[in-house]
Amino acid sequence: MRVLIAYDSLSGNTRDLARMVRECCEARGHAVTWIETGIQSLADACPDPRHDLYLLGTWTDNAGRTPAAMKRFIAELVEAVGKPGRVAVFGTGETQWGEEYYCGALRRIAGFFGSTHPPLEIEQMPHGARDALKVRHWADQVLATPGSAAAAMPTSPQPMPRTRSMQTLHASTPDDVRAAIAAHPRLLVDYYKDDCPACRMLDLSLRQFAAGPAAAGLALLKVKLETVGEDVFRDLGLRQTPTLALHVDGREAVRLPGFRTPAQIAQAVEAHACDIPA
After folding, report:
1. Predicted structure pTM score
2. Same CATH fold assignment for domains 2-152 and 167-273
3. Contact, 109 vs 56, CB < 8 A?
4. 224's torsion region: left (phi>0), alpha (psi -120 to 50) or beta?
5. Could you give the CA distance from residue 269 to residue 247 in angstroms, rounded to a whole number?
6. What is residue 19's predicted lDDT score, i.e. its pLDDT?
7. Domain ranges of the chain
8. Which of 108, 22, 16 is nearest to 60 (CA)?
C-alpha cells in the first residue's frame, strides 16, 4: 500500500510523532511518501500524488486553528486528487491553552475530509511506553481498514513482510540512552535538536541509508536535546547538532559531527562495525 505522510511541526514534537507513525507503516511493509509541509510541496515530493492512504499530522495554532503550512498543503492535495477517501489525522497539543482548543486543528482537518478514524492526539510530545503503544494501536487500526492490504490478509497468523528498515528507538531520559547502548551490539545514535536544518537533512540521509545493506542488524536511537536535556549533551562532549555516534558492543567506535550523506554513514559503519554479525 502506498501511504503519504505529510506533517507540519512548530517545535519538533509533531515531527517526532510523525516519525513514529512512519516507522509503524514501514515495519508493515508499506511504501511511505514523506513530506514536511513547511519546506516541501506535494509536487516537489512526489510526481504521482495518488496514494492509498493519507496521514496528516499537525500542531494546533492559536484558538484551535490549522497552521498556514498545513492549510497550503491541503489545498494543494485537494487540487491534485480531490478529497481522498482514506484520510487519518494525528498531532500534538497542549491542554494548558484550553480544553476547547486542544488539538483543534486535528478535528478541523478530520471534519473537512470526513475521516472515519478518530484523530491520534498526543499531549505535548510522544514519550514513554504508553504513548508508543497508543501510536501503534492507532496505526494498526488505520492501516487495517477495509480495502487495505492488512485487512485483506487471512486471520490466521502470517509472517510479517521483511524490511530493511532499521529499528528506531526514541530516548526520553538519559537512562534510555544508556540502556539502548547496552542492549544493542550495533547502534547508531542520532543526537539532534529542534529548529536545526542540518538535523532534518541528516534524518533524510538516515532513511536512505536504512534501505542499504550496511544497515542490516543496526538499530537507530534518536536523542533529542529538548527531551533529555542540555546537560546530557554537555556531559557527552557534544559540540554541535546533529552528531551521529556509532556504538559497537557498548563502546563508541566513531563520532560523526554535522551532516553526513548516506554513503558517508555506510562507509563509517563498514569501517567500524562490519565484523559484528547481524
Report:
1. 0.58
2. no
3. yes
4. beta
5. 10
6. 94
7. 2-152, 167-273
8. 108
